[in-house]
Amino acid sequence: MYKNKFIAFIDILGFGALVEKSSDIPDIAESILNALISMNPQLLQETMFGSLHEDKIPEEKLDEAKAVIARMTQNMSEMHPVTISYFSDSLVLSADVDDVIASQTILELLAKLSIKLWDEHSLLIRGGVTLGKLVHTENGPLFGPAMNRAYHLESEKAITPRIIFDAHCIEAFRQIHTFEVLEPLIETDDKYSYISLPACFRYITTSSSLAYSDTAQLRTIVRAQSEMLPKIKSIISSGPAQRIKEKYEWLESEVQKIQSQ
User: Fold this and answer.
1) What is the residue range of 152's domain?
2) Is 236 helix (H, G, I), strand (E, B) or coil?
3) d(CA 54, CA 214)
4) Alpha-carbon span 15 to 4, nearest angstrom
5) Which of residues 214 and 65 earns the better pLDDT score?
6) CATH number at residue 184
7) CA–CA separation, 248 vs 197, rounded Å?
8) Residue 198, CB half-sphere, CA atoms under 13 Å: how many?
9) CB count in 10 Å sphere of residue 43
10) Please, what is the Cα angle at 193 between 162 and 199, to 5 degrees?
11) Distance CA 97, CA 166 (A)
């Protein structure tokens, strides 16, 4: 029944507090809605294996190009399935351990989602990634030791706004030759390998397929990257609660560390 799978459990930080405020501030409610739509499995599936350079395509050819990319995405999704479950402010993605393309696609999706939620909604995510026994069916059951472990990593170990890996999981990823392309996405401290927001920007702008394009999407990401540190400093100076301030201070130090490399 169980299969060995890579699994990522992701949670939006501060979501509960936002929901509490949303009944009195309509703009917050709309932002929450848009953020959750960003995490919708169907939308994630649509961007999983490629995107169009719409600004490079003649208008009369755009519909045809969209149909081609949709067929390609559908075919790739069937050959290399990533199962996605979505509930409240949490997201679970999994792929069979022997499907290299699908398992690495999970990490690409996490990078893009981190940037999108931060740039469009000023939201941060935290998560855990592991490898183990899992049952995960689209629109169906989700359980197993790997799910328990991924949730534990997110809720008890990650602490700061980052996505941490179990040691055996990152080692398994690094056994795959093509994983070297994804190395800019990974940072390491004395306990964990992890993905952080500044590492997501680094990966997308230097190593991903988007990095070699001249598209509006890439230009948006580069702009968001340049605004990241001032935005973090502004949040810190606004006087948030101490436990929140500490998370942004950690993120500030992470940005500075990566920028100095």
Assistant:
1) 3-259
2) helix
3) 11
4) 31
5) 214
6) 3.30.70.1230
7) 11
8) 21
9) 13
10) 55
11) 14
CA atoms within a 13 Å half-sphere pointing along the CA-CB vector of 254: 25
Range in 3-12, 92-101, 156-165, 207-216 the model is least confident about: 207-216
pLDDT for residue 96: 94
Provide the pLDDT for residue 39.
66
Pairing mode, if any, of strands 83-87 and 125-136?
unpaired
Angle formed by the axes of helices 216-237 and 242-259, to 10°?
A: 130
**Dihedral angle computed from the Cα positions of residues 255, 16, 193 and 151, in that order, rounded to the nearest 10 degrees:** -170
Q: Residue 228 is encoded by which pair of tokens? A: 């990241």
**Reported pTM:** 0.86
pLDDT digit string, tens, across residues 197-249: 999 999 999 998 888 877 788 889 999 999 999 999 999 999 988 999 999 99
Average pLDDT over residues 97-117: 91
At residue 3, does pLDDT exceed 90? yes
* 203's tokens: 């990966």
Count of CA atoms in the C-beta half-sphere (13 A) of 90? 12
Sequence-distant (≥ 6) Cβ neighbours of residue 231 within 8 angstroms = 122
Provide the pLDDT for residue 214.
Answer: 75
Residue 145 makes CB contacts below 8 A (sequence gap 6+) with 132, 133, 134
The 10 Å Cβ neighbour count of residue 205 is: 16
163-176 burial: b if 16+ Cβ within 10 Å, else e? bbbbeebbebbeee
**Cβ–Cβ < 8 Å for 109, 82:** yes
Region of residue 162 (phi > 0: left; psi between -120 and 50: alpha; otherwise: beta):
beta
Strand segments (E) across 88-161: 90-96, 125-136, 142-143
The amino acid at 26: P
- Give residue 124's pLDDT: 94
Q: How many domains does the chain have?
A: 1
